[in-house]
Amino acid sequence: FIFVEKLSSSVTQQFVDSNLNFKCFRFQFLEEVYGTAGWVLSVIDKVKMEHIPSVGVLPLGTGNDLARALGWGGGYGGQKIVPIIKKMESARRVELDRWTLNIANKKEDGTFEPPKLINIMNNYFSVGVDASIALEFHLKRQARPEKFTSRTYNKFSYSTIGGKAIFKNKAIKKGEVELIIDGKNIDIPNSTEGICVLNLDSYMGGANMWGSSKSKRFQPQSTSDGLIEVVAIDSSFHLGAIKSKLSSGKRLGQGKKVEMKLNVKIPTQVDGEPWEQVPSHVVLEQLNVGSMLARDKSRYPSPAPSQKNNNAN
Fold first, then answer.
1. What are 135-171's pLDDT values in tens digits?
2. pTM here?
């Protein structure tokens, strides 16, 4: 088990004094890290451990989608750490599909540079409206980090940016983005402002983008079936409706390999890390399967949402 050190020394001491059957690894982050659990999984890949540990996630960030998907709730509320760790002792081991994100940028002559591994996707990848909101939030936080020190303020800021995006973002024009799933070209609806590739049933702090309705066309969504789902978003207003559980994304497809040909510069994000992507060819394919700890719901009920104003990642 890996415990990522981002807690106060007093809370950490609770863990050290507990004599629980866990090994504690401390990490010092020299720069801002998006998706701490994903970073830990990548480290496990690199060091090539003989016995692969399962990773439990304590939700310290703003969205905490991986923690939500694994049943650990949407935010750590300052509770004593030992009871939480004891729950992890009896947690179920579950598999998490992990995906390579390779991007080949387009050169001036229309050909492409050799593809580069940009990141490993554990949660989601997207282009368009939601990525533009994430990018603006990221730039604001970089400019004034002292203002973004609480989960409540972060969520308020994110919502404010999303509200303004209703009047700023435009639909993706035909030919600007091409979508290919398992070698098949997929039509993108005319009203689309964003496209999301999903590995979890939690997005933007708990929203179910794929939706729960059954379909004969698609398999039920899973984190360990070797498939990723692709949905279209109409607008930031549509995003708000999804967040409020009044709607879901428009299902475009499900497959083992997703490609996008980006023919214009467009906001892009992977697992919450945003940037402006130049014209390119994007490919998502399965890398491997990570081992995670999911809460045993039969023994422990869902954690109550936190009412405290806690520090966020």
1. 887 788 878 877 766 767 777 776 677 667 666 778 8
2. 0.80
